[in-house]
């Protein structure tokens, strides 16, 4: 080998050694970084992941879109869940968890428990409880509420009951206050039923309701209005209370009120309003009294039997009488009457008994303008139209609905008869 060739070989070997050393030096940081990354249990979110942070501590932030793994993880309320995950909810704690869904994977938490169509079957706590016999009547929950404790028998409500049963009607402010407290509680299912299941209390209330001339203490509502409000409250959304009144209805109507000595039927089916009640300073009070009585009628005629009796005895004439006055103080009472008639006889969606009323053809407008004819049963259309024209700017006024429904019934020919089979 020549000296020149030997020098060239030595130089090449030197370059190879230097290159190898440089490669080793550069690879060490990358290996350290890789080792450090693999030793971490959970990588930090990427910089472009949208995070939710409720505090200034970055460790408490979490991704807006839930990132599932093979293990269940808690899901925050404000996180978005991707589709196709296995999600479970603890119904006792409200904790929601999710993970990657694995088809046909069995949940160890459900092992040993009977299931039927993905619904967990839970054995009853009282396996020896009696079974309901086939064909047994349906259990009615209305009125089945916890009764007051015995010490509540001294409650003012029961004191009012005692006063009514004893025939008190001239008892001054004490009696008026008792009626007012009774009205406040009458809307409760329990107290409403207590009122209606006592025939003596019912008869006393109807006697008060039909007497226009009873005195009342200053600052309290008239007693006929209070009695009507109590009956209306007791019957509102209380079918059991209505059944109690329905059962006693014939006896109530035959009862003779102590003050007048006349059967209740005469007062109940007579005028709502005394003479000269539609004008003057007391018109607003008379309108309030008529509204309360219309509310009581509304509850009563939900009974098929009482409604038939009401129609047979021309009770609709009394309701129509409320539509005759033209003063603005009568507006709310008239609206109440309109709603009663629509809901009871004209609107099937509200449970109305269609075809029972109206029972006569429409009367002419000329006839309904006269003092003698304005109370004819065929004049409902006229008075509804008159009130509608007075409120023509209000497209949703109740009178428009009453007028249109009356017209539709008459056009269909489905008009009832004046003689009901009871």
From TrEMBL:
Signal sequence coordinates: 1-32
Classification via InterPro entries: ARM-like
Keywords: Signal
Bias kind Low complexity: ranges: 33-47
Cited Gene3D superfamilies: Leucine-rich Repeat Variant
Chain intervals for the UniProt region annotation (Disordered): 33-52
Protein name: Nucleotide exchange factor SIL1
């Amino acid at each position: 080998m020549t000296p020149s060739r030997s020098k060239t070989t030595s130089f090449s070997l030197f370059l190879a050694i230097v290159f190898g050393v440089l490669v080793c030096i550069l690879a060490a940081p990358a290996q350290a970084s890789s080792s450090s990354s693999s030793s971490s249990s959970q990588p930090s979110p990427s910089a472009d992941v949208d995070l939710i942070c409720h505090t200034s501590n970055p460790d408490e932030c979490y991704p807006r879109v839930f990132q599932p793994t093979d293990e269940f993880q808690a899901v925050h309320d404000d996180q978005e869940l991707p589709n196709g995950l296995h999600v479970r909810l603890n119904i006792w704690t409200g904790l929601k968890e999710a993970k990657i869904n694995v088809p046909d994977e069995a949940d160890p938490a459900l092992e040993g428990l009977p299931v039927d169509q993905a619904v967990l079957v839970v054995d009853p706590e009282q396996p020896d409880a009696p079974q309901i016999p086939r064909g047994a009547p349906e259990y009615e929950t209305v009125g089945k509420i916890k009764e007051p404790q015995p010490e509540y028998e001294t409650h003012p409500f029961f004191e009012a009951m005692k006063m009514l049963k004893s025939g008190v009607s001239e008892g001054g402010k004490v009696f008026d206050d008792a009626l007012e407290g009774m009205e406040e509680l009458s809307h409760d299912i329990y107290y409403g039923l207590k009122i209606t299941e006592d025939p003596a209390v019912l008869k006393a209330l109807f006697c008060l309701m039909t007497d226009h001339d009873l005195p009342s203490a200053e600052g309290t509502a008239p007693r006929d209005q209070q009695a009507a409000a109590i009956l209306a409250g007791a019957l509102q959304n209380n079918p059991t209370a209505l059944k109690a009144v329905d059962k006693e209805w014939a006896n109530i109507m035959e009862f003779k009120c102590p003050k007048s000595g006349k059967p209740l039927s005469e007062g109940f089916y007579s005028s709502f309003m005394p003479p000269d009640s539609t004008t003057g300073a007391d018109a607003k009070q008379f309108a309030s009294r008529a509204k309360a009585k219309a509310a009581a009628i509304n509850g009563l005629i939900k009974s098929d039997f009482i409604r038939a009796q009401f129609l047979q005895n021309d009770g609709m004439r009394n309701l129509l009488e409320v539509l005759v006055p033209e003063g603005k103080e009568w507006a709310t009472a008239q609206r109440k009457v309109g709603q009663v008639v629509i809901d009871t006889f004209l609107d099937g969606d509200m449970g109305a008994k269609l075809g029972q009323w109206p029972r006569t053809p429409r009367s002419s407008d000329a006839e309904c303008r006269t003092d003698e004819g304005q109370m004819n049963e065929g004049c409902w259309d006229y008075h509804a139209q008159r009130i509608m024209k007075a409120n023509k700017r209000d497209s949703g006024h109740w009178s428009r609905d009453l007028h249109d429904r009356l017209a539709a019934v008459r056009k269909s020919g489905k008009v009832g008869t004046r003689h009901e089979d009871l």
